[in-house]
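#struct-queue
[09:14] JT: dropping the first one here, sequence first, then the structure tokens:
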Amino acid sequence: VKKSYTGNLWCVTPDHRAYLFNVSTCEFTDVSKLILQRYQHHVNVRNVYPLSNGYTWVVDADCGNSYRVCDDSIQFAEAMRPYPVPEQVGKNKHLKKVMIDNDGREWVFYEGGLTLYGSKHHLKGNYEYLIQQGKSLLLGTLHGKLMIYDTVKDRFTELRLPGDVKQINDMIELNERQILVATEKGVAWVDM
């Protein structure tokens, strides 16, 4: 169960169906049924990712289309759009998660890649982490790669960690200017 931006509740059942529970009316909307009716796709829901901009991503467990759904107008056909796995990511790749940055950009994490929704940006690698500081974002892979995204210049730059880092275990925002990166070699800090 996950809370939507509108305060309603997203539920994924053990049989992999998605429902949106309206807390005001105490009624469920069968989102899986709406997807089947609108797109003739029986989605095997693995997870849902409600975002702070009012959209929720309904993720298919079978590497098929995922769906971007507008929470407050789900009953209308235009409130739901299929999102196929991008060609750059490759076939048979699962959508892992979706995160939103402070400026409302939606970052779509796949096995082996990362895309920025609504743009042509694509990064290869098993990305797991995203932290925003000011007009820059730090993106990290599980395998020790860091990228800085400059939101003003709309450009990515690789950032090398000291030593021969092969694994990032976590990234934590220390303060407004620094991020701690936990690796198999120890902790590194990144000044943004």
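[09:21] JT: and here's the second one, same format:
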Amino acid sequence: LMTQKNLLLLLAVLLGVKFLLIPLIEWQDASIDALDAASRQLSKVERVIAAESRYRDELEVVRAQLESANSRIYEYSDTIKLDIQRDLEELFVASGGLTVTGFNWVADSSKESDSVRVLRGIVYFSGPLSSMIETFWAMGASSKVIRIVDWRQQVQSYGLDVLGGTSGNVTLEFFVLPNVPKLGNEVMDNVSE
């Protein structure tokens, strides 16, 4: 009888452990895991908040770089091709003596309002070789990005004391950003909310 009582007592203890103690331990483990995850998230948020001034400084650097890049790239307008042709004409006229004998637009990569648009044109020219060199230098120093894709020319009447004349063509690319995003304070204001 005593062993039967001991066995019943042991059974009650085991049932208590199975249905009371183990669920309690599992609940505690789940609570500890949730608390650890919340603690890790809090730590990440605290690091972001602590670095807010650094992020603001980095944002200002990016904003300045974007504004600098924007000033070197054409902005979209309905007359963009005409504007580019006028800029090229000014470059060629400033070189003194190089004559534009023709101009053709040969490619327009995109007319979508939200992507970078690449325009490609061919300029045909003739005149003194020294003027051609000055014009190419002026294109390199232009306030707008002008990519020289290809150029072909023939040089005539050159000698030891004379550079001679030239005629040929140059293929140029121009980049147009139609809708340049403006990064304002609203970006950081949204972060701090």
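[09:30] RK: nice, looked through the second one.
[09:31] RK: Residues 2-50 form the longest helix (49 residues).
[09:31] JT: good to know. Strands lie at 74-75, 99-108, 117-128, 146-156, 165-177.
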